[in-house]
Amino acid sequence: MTSDTLLSYELSAKMADLYNRMEKVYDDVARKIDFSCAGCPDNCCDSFFLHHTYVEWAYLWEGLHLLDKARLDEIRLRAGEYVAGSEKILSQGARPVIMCPLNESGRCSLYLHRLMICRMHGVPSEITMPNGRKMHFPGCFRCQELVGEQADCWVVDRTGLYKELVALETEFLGAKRAVMPKVKMTIAGMIVLGPPG
Ligand code: SF4
Ligand code: SF4
Question: What is the pLDDT of residues 65-91, one digit of tens each?
Fold first, then answer.
């Protein structure tokens, strides 16, 4: 892995394919419960989420590299403000609520390169951990209101998708995976730091 090559062509295609399939399983469940974000008074892009893979970080930057310099500079500026603002709020023991620097006029401006959590948040989902423990995510407040008691009827099973992401992370980092520090970063942090490498 080097900072100038980022993802290989093959790895980039695999990420696009995995992200597409995440979107499909999400859309499938959303259709079945007749759920969408349309008309929601909230916008989850101001939620404080941390992301955990270098391969997603690199794929995000693949998208950012497609932007012209003026737009990238604007996004970098907003990302810097996000990082400073969230650090201040976190130091006061609160959870930041600050709009993601990639959100423009309520919409994601880097939609094809948005990260896994952005693709999974909303509908109910579950994951089976390597130790067999199952974790259930009930979906956003609006989805919970919609499905009520039926929350277990239709869920996205994240397990296989997560495993595939971990495999791509391993492919990206190679032998370095064992020694690289763990990623625990906001999207804004990934933008401020530049591509991983
Ligand atoms: S995920 Fe739910 S809370 Fe978030 S914007 Fe969509 S409908 Fe609203
Ligand atoms: S990357 Fe896009 S979808 Fe994800 S939080 Fe930012 S604006 Fe929203």
Answer: 999 999 999 999 999 999 999 999 999
Which ligand places an atom closest to the C-alpha of 101?
A: 2
Provide the CA 8 distance to its chain's centre, in angstroms. Answer: 20
- Using pLDDT thresholds of 50, 70 and 90, give the confidence band for residue 6: confident
CB distance 52 to 184 below 8 Å: yes
Average pLDDT of every residue of the chain: 93
Name the residue among 121, 135, 112, 127 with its Cα closest to residue 166. 127
- CA atoms of 94 and 102, how far apart (whole Å): 23
User: Nearest ligand to the C-alpha of residue 106?
Assistant: 2
- Angstrom CA distances, 45 to 3, 14, 37, 70, 125, stand at 27, 25, 12, 22, 19
pLDDT at residue 1 is higher than 60: no
CA of 130 to the centre of ligand 2 (A): 28
Can you give the pTM of this predicted structure? 0.93
Task: Give the start-to-end residue ranges of the domains of the chain.
Answer: 9-192
> For residue 140, which atom of ligand 1 is closest to its CA?
2
Reported residue count of the chain is 197
**Residue 89 CB–ligand 1 contact under 6 Å:** no
